[in-house]
Amino acid sequence: MSTPPGSRVWLAIVVAGVGTFLLRASFLFLFERVGGAPPRLERALRYVPAAVLAALVVPALAAPDGVPTVVGNDRLLAGALAALVAWRTESVLATIVAGMVALVALGAVGGAL
Amino acid sequence: MTQEGAEPGMETAGTESPVTVGSDSDTMGSRESFLAGVRAVAPIIVGIVPFGLVAGAAAVNAGLTLLDAVGLSVVVFAGASQLAAIGLFGDGAPLALVVVTVLVINLRLVMYSASIAPELLDEPRRWRALSAYLLTDQAYALSVTRFEREPGTSRRSFYLGAAAPLWAAWQVCTVIGAVVGARVPPWLPLDFAVPLTFLALLVPAVKGRATAAAAAVGGGLATVGVGLPLEAGLMVGAVAGVLAGLLTEAVVGPDAVGAGEDEPGGGHA
Questions:
Q1: Do residues A42 and A57 share a domain?
Q2: Distance CA A8, CA B98 (A)
């Protein structure tokens, strides 16, 4: 339970921050050197958005408390409804409103039972 | 599609009618693009408020000062890794472990950097350095899907419009969380706005079998691996998803741009 002294905390913060910046900057500068993304890598990169977005979304819906849960999982149900809305409307706002309203409503119903 | 910097507007032409969003399909002004970015990030900002408050409150609870908390948010600016670092600081863990933990959790940013880089390579280096500093899950996801769907968008303006307000909100929430604590009414699940936004971006990003495979494998593995340390589930899922996309492409061919199987692009007019 002992926090290290302030100067050492800052050393860690700065090193971690510089390292994180280098991770972020990596290809933004590397591709310039090699004249753009190599074709094979570019093909792979086309699948990053779908793969990453799903890897961010699905656990948030299917395992909101850190364990995959189907039964009694309000977020999964609200998310499924929101996915339907997203597919039909292609509207971010409509998707958020539908998902939020559904989740709050499910919580209210569950709380009342 | 190989797009060598110039002429990004040709991709969806030809097949079907292009996505019917506004009449300004060719190019958008920088102001307009900036505002589009701000609008796109607005719901996400609402969603990260609880998270930002926690980033501030947890730091103080772990024995760090307000300045340390703000330092983490300004210097590192990556929520999940900040919370992990705070936990380790509080346990008195070796500082090298803190640094390594932060960097491993943030490895996924390399993937975003590679994915967004082709869109931003024409920008000056100083500006790319700023974009790098501001790169987050959210700024990446909003921008990469926007550039795909509306190639006429001014890249740097939209990116800045999406990324900068998020940065500012994160800093403000950190301070409030550190000073006041993190209290959000439990019946108001603001944090849910973030996955919902990603969901709304994911659905149109699935354009056929190959991208569907990428999403299915990415989402599935990330969920199975949700308990793994260092956010490894996210990284493993994303990489495996990309491989699944490539594999599917090798078997059935790439997704037809703009012409998915059961007309997923046919939204409202």
A1: no
A2: 11
Task: Please name which of B243, B205, B204 lies closest in space to residue B221, comparing C-alpha atoms.
Answer: B243
Which of B193, B234, B242 is closest, CB to CB, to A48? B242
B199, B201, B207, B212: CA torsion to nearest 10: -30
For residue A16, give both structure tokens: 């971690």
Interchain CB contact of B40 with A (< 8 Å): yes
Q: How far apart are CA B46 and CA B200, in angstroms?
A: 16
How many domains does chain A contain in total? 2
Joined together, the tokens standing for residue B212 give 């569907």
Full residue range of the structural domain in which residue A72 is found: 51-113
Cβ–Cβ of A23/B210 closer than 8 Å? no
* B163 interface with A at CB cutoff 8 Å: no
- How far apart are the CA of B29 and the nearest CA of chain A, in angstroms? 22
C-alpha–C-alpha distance, residues B190 and B47, integer Å: 5
Domain identity same for A59 and A35: no
**B112-121, B131-140, B184-193: which range is least confident on average?**
B184-193
pTM above 0.90, yes or no: no
**Residue B129: what residue type?**
A
Q: Do A23 and B109 touch (CB under 8 A)?
A: yes
The residue in chain A having the minimum alpha-carbon distance to the alpha carbon of residue B203 is: A87
Among A30, A33, A56, most B C-beta atoms within 10 A, so best to mutate, is A56
Instruction: Supply the ipTM of this predicted assembly.
Output: 0.86
Q: Which of A56-65, B65-74, B185-194, B234-243 has the lowest mean pLDDT?
A: B185-194
Taking CB atoms and an 8 Å cutoff, what residues of chain B touch A75?
192, 195
- Using CB atoms and an 8 Å cut-off, which of residues 210-239 of chain B contact chain A? 210-212, 214-224, 226-227, 233-234, 237-239
Domain ranges of chain B: 29-183+190-197, 206-262
The continuous run of DSSP H or E covering B239 comes out as helix B232-252
CB contacts of A95 in chain B (<8 Å) are: 196-197, 199-200
Is B150 in contact with B24 (CB distance < 8 Å)?
Answer: no
What is the b/e burial string over A22-60, where b = at least 16 CB atoms within 10 angstroms of the residue's CB?
A: bbbbbbbbebeeeebbeeeebbbbbbbbbbbbbbbbbbb
Of A10, A26, A46, which residue sits at a domain end? A46
